[in-house]
Amino acid sequence: MPILTGSTPTKTLFMATQFLTKSTKPSLTHFRQLSCTASTTSSYPQRLEPNPPDLINWVKKQGGFVHPSVRISENGQFGLGLVASDDIASGSYLIGLPDHVPLRFGLSDGDCGADGDSVLVNVARKVPEELWAMRLGLKLLQERARVGSFWWPYISNLPETYTVPIFFPGEDIKNLQYAPLLYQVNKRCRFLLDFEKELERVLGNLDSNDHPFGSQDVDASSLGWAMSAVSSRAFRLYGKKLQDGTHSNAPMMLPLIDMCNHSFSPNAEIVQEQGDANAKMLVKVVAGTDIKQDDALVLNYGCLNNDLFLLDYGFVIPSNPYDCIELRYDGALLDAASMAAGVSSPNFSTPAPWQQDILLKLDLDGESPLLKVSLGGPELVEGRLLAALRVLLERDVEKVQNHDLDTLKSLSVEAPLGIPNEVAVLRTCIALCVIALEHFPTKLMEDESLLKKDISGTAELAIQFRIQKKSLIIDVMRDLTRRVKLLSSQESAVS
């Protein structure tokens, strides 16, 4: 079984952080076998063990169920996945895992998976909630280090590398070209480097009996591997039953089930079943539609944007209907956009008191405002941004007061404050799109030509990501332009 120390020379995680922050810290001087880099080619990475145990047989031996027509197959684009070797009818029971098979880690008394390991629990409590994958990742590392671990047949089937941005070479991080994602990559890299030091401090003087990793070193790269393994494979399901009858939210790694790839049109779904109060919970996968022979078994990982798909899963969804671009709500920026759109005398920087009251209700003003807004996705224009634009481009107080905030936040409500107001709002949004597009240092056609060259897998992912962002912006502009033309024609017909 691999241990947590070794000699694989990788500095990719450090290089990523150094590139983003221009840090002057010295490079990591110790290299461990668990260290992880992203694959530099488009081929699927090797598993931890060259010839791992058969996972289907292992699940069956543990009392689980696997439909006889479900098999593991390698897909060139998505790696290992589950496919149907024969037709499977809708409603069929595909996979079932008994309660003891999922890998989980609870931090509170009575949660499954804590194993009474107070050291690991206390360390895990230092991980912020938004990086919950690192908490379960600590348990995963512990089991990877433990000789004879119950979960080794599962862990040995995990990829030894992940194509997530924290492991991209510095130049490919730069090639993402999108500030919100660069911020998140930098934040995660910084956390991993700081958490490595925290582990050294907490675990440095423990004897082997108390050490959660058997006295083996755990560096930033091994932590990154574990966090990536969890973020790309874990599911947040029901955990311990609470006193009020509800269940806690518990991240779990589900052996075999996590080989189902993603689709927004899934043919399978996860179901949790529990009988009487003392019964153990069973995690099942059920066919949601008829599945044809050689079809992949796919689940919906969630209605996520491409930022999260790339950060957590290492892939990008073309034409993702939930993708969006993030903007900062800024009065000066909106004034500039409105003037560029031909709107006369916008006053985003100096709202009237009644307009400022509405901005407070939209959480766009005040002591701790939420200034991140978005364009794209199902809303096209985020409701808070749309309402703010409509209100601040309207000078008639009574006209605004005739509508509630839900109406003002809805693009499906056509021109609630009149056509001139709506046209000004939409033109301002188009100008925001133009500004966002200009922030990318390369053009869409340049990116598309780069994909035709011989480039690394991480470079290809970075280019695909920024192509999708630029395409999204262009699609939003087209949709808004169409709406402006329709409204303008309606106004002309009335006049």
Automatic annotation (TrEMBL):
Keyword Transferase applies: yes
InterPro entries: Rubisco_LSMT_subst-bd, Rubisco_LSMT_subst-bd_sf, SET_dom, SET_dom_sf, SETD3_SETD6_MTase
Top-level taxonomic group: Eukaryota
GO biological process: methylation
Pfam families: Rubis-subs-bind (PF09273), SET (PF00856)
Keyword Transferase: yes
PROSITE patterns the record matches: SET
Listed name of the protein: Histone-lysine N-methyltransferase setd3
